[in-house]
Protein: Protein translocase subunit SecE
Amino acid sequence: MNVKAEVESTGMDTLKLLLAVVLLVGGIVLFYFFEEYSSLLRVLGLLVISGIAILVALQSVVGRRIWDFAVASRSEVRKVVWPSRQETIQTTLIVFGMVLLVGIVLWLFDLMLMAIVQSVTG
Structure:
């Protein structure tokens, strides 16, 4: 069992995350401020600022945890055995068939209850 001690974030980590958020907000403000320029240049500038904000955020404990989680998730997705096209089609047809069957049963049940209620109430 692998147990790691919890590392609390420091004031410096908070400052780094705050700087990353300020960079992102500033990038968005600049994106709209320079609306007379080409959209391509504005988008590229926003991407560069976003990349810098991500790099700053990754320097904090929280950022490293998120990065480690993303890397672990990617390796887990690679381990998944995805169904073949034929298995997917067969499963989809079974689901459609069951939905149709349950829908018909519920419709018949509703008709029966409606007939009972009408016979009782006149």
